[in-house]
Each structure stands twice: as C-alpha cells, then as structure tokens.
Amino acid sequence: MARHFAGGTLVIATHNRGKLAEMEDLLRPYGVKVVSAGALGLPEPEETGTTFEANAELKALAATKASGLPALADDSGLVVPALDGAPGIYSARWAGESKDFGLAMARVEHELKGKRDRRCYFVAVLALAWPDGHIETFRGEVHGSVVFPPRGTRGFGYDPIFLPEGKSETFGELASEERMAVSHRTVAFQQLVEACFRPQRA
Amino acid sequence: MARHFAGGTLVIATHNRGKLAEMEDLLRPYGVKVVSAGALGLPEPEETGTTFEANAELKALAATKASGLPALADDSGLVVPALDGAPGIYSARWAGESKDFGLAMARVEHELKGKRDRRCYFVAVLALAWPDGHIETFRGEVHGSVVFPPRGTRGFGYDPIFLPEGKSETFGELASEERMAVSHRTVAFQQLVEACFRPQRA
Lengths: 202, 202
Prior knowledge:
Two copies of one chain form a homodimer. By secondary structure, the first copy, chain A, is of the alpha/beta class.
C-alpha cells in the first residue's frame, strides 16, 4: 500500500509556471499547499534517466533532498513504436532550446516517412518523494495515432499531431475539458491522489 | 540509388576489436581494406543522438571527418515496446562502465515485472559516410520475445534473454551460424553491401 501524504507543503519539482498552476488546481481539494522548485531557487537536475520513471524519480528526489519537504515531479512524452519508442524521454529535447514543437513534430513526420504503423501514445509518470528517500510512482497513458499535418491550436507540445483512439479531433482541436478527461496526465494524477491523498471536508 | 564505395581503405568507427574483426571478415570479399578508428587514434564521439540512425550517423561522420577516409559505424540495441522502447539506444549504457550485461538483463526483468507483453526486437543500424558529408544508412531488425532466466553462454549483450520468433533457443544458446543467419547485424549488413559494394573476382 502506498504511503499517504500527511499534509503541509509539497514541492512541485518544475520550473514551468503552467505545470505549477495545473498542479495547484488539482491538489487544492486535498488541502495541499504547493510551492515550486523554481520559487525555492532549487537547481534543475540533469535528466540522465533512461526511462520516464527514472527521470521523474530523479527530479522528485533532487527536490526533496534540496528542500527537506516532500516533492512531486513528472516526466512525460510521446512514444512512437514505429520509431523504436522515439521521441520518448527525449520528447521535450526534440523541440530544442527554443522549445519549437513545430520543429519536433516535423521531425516525427520526417522519421515516419515510409512507415505505415502510425500508432503512438502519450505517457506521464508522476513521482512523489519523501525526505527519507521513500518514493511512489504512478503512470498514465493515452493511446492513439500520429496524424499529419498538425491540426488545432489548443494544448501544447505534440498535441496537434495526436489523434486519440475513438475521437475524430486531435489533442490540438479538442476542447480542454474533453482532452483532460482522457489525458495521460489525468490518468497518472488520478492514481496518485487515490493512493496518496485524502479529500478534505470544507 | 545509393552511392557505391569506390575501393581503398574504409575506417570502421569502433574501438571494439570484436566488431572490427567481424567487419574485416564480412568486407574481405569486396576487396575492402579496413582500419579501426581506435588504430588511427581517433577520439570516440559522445553518443548524443536520440535514435539509432542519429547515433550511427554521428559516429560515422566524426570518423570520416577526422580521417579524411570513408567510414562505417553501427549503432544497435534491444527495443522492448512494453518499456516504451527501453533500453533502446541505451542498451550498452544499461550495462554500466563495467559492461555488466548480467546487470542490464536483470534490469530488463525488473522493469518488466507485472507486464504481460514480452515482445522485443534487436535493431542494428549501419551508417556509411564519405568525407564530402554524403551518408547512407541501413537498418536490420530481428523480432522475438524476452525470456527469463537468461539462457546460454554464446553471443554477447542481451543475447541470453532474446528468444527469436519461430525458434526454441535463445541467441545465447543458438550456434553462431544459426544466430548470424537471422541476426539484425546480418540483415543490416546485407542491405549495405547490396547497395554500396561490388564483389571482387579472385
């Protein structure tokens, strides 16, 4: 059985303001105060892991070690089996320093030339680490296929080329609520809260 | 149509004596003299690519640039779809500095706990680069499944946990000739020679 979060402040191991705001909203019903690793001036560790789990764990452990507080980190990406799993843990890095996901999507299109299998899936792994080194990880996936050209302006990253199974609109076209209902982040988050958090009464 | 190798000396971009000997044997019928990057004192480039193709290309380009001669490099690994493609391009690195593939195989077993899908495949990509920057790449794959515990003492790397499709013996158990007949390296090599080399008459 997973360890429960005892309350108090949780460090979100991200320097991304969007991710912080999302986590803050999601954790509010559980009476959790959040602070970002960026606000605490914590350094960003190098993502030397070779799996999503390893990268989420190293980010959470670095943040809990540096702050003395429990810390939550995520690692996520797009896995294309026909590309041996690429971009995978490199999904953000394919966009380069300038975070140009147009470039990253063009590279997926280029690498898939001549390959018929267009299946793909998004993965999100959340890792919750405690100062004593205990760690819990949770994984969410959403399966679909890669489509070109990119469609829609919502979401971010590879969303415009991701067509979820059973839908006719990409993650770039779907309304936010519809996308969130099936997203890999939501699935991972639901598992995290079921295992580690208790809802607070108002 | 692929560019042909015009004859003369080819640099094999490896510091591994076993790989060099294998290439030397394979290329002898084509009248190719080979020299290793190690023997020329060329530095080993960092494998910063995010795909097998990218790593093979950067190794071949580094060797041709440093030597002024055409250069052949390979990149290979084991892809496990249930692990999002891991260890993939990290296959050698999972074995650590001490090249302990017992450790690497144990890690595959650990990561696969609770996952039913045991399909996997070996990939080999060969890249042949010329001093003017022209480059050709060739890919071989062999599909099968991961089995535990490891079986057999032949081959190297992940061979003892790789059961090829349609066989009852792992790559660690099969006789060398039988393994070579279906191996990912053989498939990649056959494509390379068909595209770029002409057999020499005795």
